[in-house]
Amino acid sequence: MKLLSLIPLLLIIFLIFVAYRVYTTQHGTQQAEFLAGKLPAEMPDGLYKGSSEFGANNPWKGKKFDRAAQTGINEVTISGRTAEKFPFKTYTGVGIVDTQLQVIKIDYDIPQNPWFVKIVLDEIVQTAPGHFLGKVNLRVAGLVLPVGYFGLGK
To answer: In CATH terms, is domain 3-153 a member of 3.40.630?
Structure first.
């Protein structure tokens, strides 16, 4: 079988996977927790350790926020060393999918990031003092695809 003839099948498999991720993100237990979250009185500031469904082997370690500048950057581990990658801007607004909710937006659509990072719009809500639950949204071809969650804590 030629590789070219596999492309439609691989595309269909990928689209099914994305549809599954969107469905489970919007209908899982974390969705209820996200909807119960609140916009904090103050924007986060400083380093927040991250947690995700990908576990301890995930190179992403957290996010560092600069409240005054309304910016931030991700902390990752690359070859055993901590590095800062993928800067973002922060602001508050209505959820892109959950329009009944006020959220903090973590927007990667800035010139320093590659195209595949610029499509990400994270949204976070406070679930407890110093703790946030985040939702990962992808903006693709005019669609918004919520594909997962992450945690942040002091």
So the answer is: no
